[in-house]
Each structure stands twice: as structure tokens, then as C-alpha cells.
Amino acid sequence: LHSTSRRQRQMCIRDRRMLREVIRKQQAVIQKLEQELAKSRLQNENNHQEIENLKEMLRMLEETEGYLNAA
Looking at the whole model, is its pTM more than 0.85? Predict the structure, then answer.
């Protein structure tokens, strides 16, 4: 009986260590994904701003074309 309970304690200690390692790895994965998401959001914001800049440039070119056609 004594050796059985000792073995169970050892297994429990081993299981806790394994669980801690799994948790640590999952936390690292989550942190990496959060960083990638932040980068992606920043890139999307940059892309959106670039699109708006290009639209404004196109509007100005079309306006200039209208002035040239009227002259």
C-alpha cells in the first residue's frame, strides 16, 4: 500500500510538471499569435491609409484633366 501511494504521488508530481510545460507552451503560442495580430492590424491600417492617399491623388488628377479639357 505504501509503495502504491508513493507511486501515485510521483505520477501526480510528474503530471503537474507536464501540465505546467503544456501551459507554458500554450502561453507562448498565444503571445506570438497576439503579436502577429497586432502587426497585421497595423499593416491593414497602413494599407487603408495608402488607399485613401491614392484615391485623393486620383481625384486630383481627374480634376486636373477636367481643367485641361476645358481649356
Answer: no
